[in-house]
Amino acid sequence: MDEPADAQFDTRNDGDVRDPGAGPLKPRHAATLIIVRDDGPKPRLLMGRRNRGLAFMADKWVFPGGRVDRGDYTAPSASDLSPDTAARLAVEPRHPTPARLARALALAAVRETFEETGLLLARPAPARPGAGAWRPFLAQGALPDLAPLAFVARAITPPYRTRRFDARFFMAPASALLSLERQPDCGELDEIGWFDFDQARALDLPNITRFVVHEVGQRLAQPERPAPFMRFLRGARQLSYL
Fold first, then answer.
1. How far apart are CA 66 and CA 29, in angstroms?
2. Cα–Cα distance, 187 to 172 (Å, whole number)
3. Is 235 left (phi over 0), alpha (psi -120 to 50) or beta?
4. Separation of alpha carbons 16 and 228, rounded Å
5. What distance in Å separates the CA atoms of residue 229 and residue 155, rounded to the nearest whole number?
6. Overall pTM surpassing 0.70 (yes/no)
7. Which end of the chain, N or C, is less surrounded by CB atoms within 10 Å?
8. Consecutive sets of 10 residues in the chain, 242 residues long: mean pLDDT of each?
9. Checking DSSP bridges between strand 191-195 and strand 228-233, what pairing results, if any?
10. Using CA of residue 209, residue 214, residue 215, residue 217, what is the dihedral sign?
11. Where are the domains of the chain?
């Protein structure tokens, strides 16, 4: 499989490193969403800059995303994951993603994108009573739309990090957004923007984000391309494909 010549997954100089004597830290499930616009001469990706005061990846440009919350397991949606995306998540040989978790991951990706950028991947629908983090989303008179999501990649943060995530990366077209206009009072990222691939690669990116930018470009040309799975085993990076 083709990967960028400068591909390095989360090297030790890419963030805080844990005390070697500390006990094991279990990764938390997380999800990220890459929104792609195709209404211009070149495809453009939605990216945001993290606050410089944050302890994790401060001042870096990233795709919106975050950890799975309890409410993501029960939140309503306007559609389900496509059979292809659900199947890709389930084929992982040693650690398949159960259907309930797969749906929660997809909903987390949509929710985090709304919270961090103010953009809704949703369909208009009658408002339903919501709870917790989903209440502002459902108050917009819309329900999350999971059908457009494609599974792009999976990455588990190395064991030497102070925070560890088992992250799944999804991709969806900007045409699936309820609107390109941000909802008021939303947007946890300092700044967001739409960048073509050359512009995105010129940003200050974490190594994993740089890798996924390359992967998205490959996937747009080859939609059936297997999804990369990046993790560390016995102290070394392992890259396989699902």
1. 9
2. 19
3. left
4. 25
5. 6
6. yes
7. N
8. 49 53 76 95 92 60 92 92 91 73 96 91 73 68 92 86 84 94 68 93 90 93 89 75 80
9. unpaired
10. positive
11. 24-241
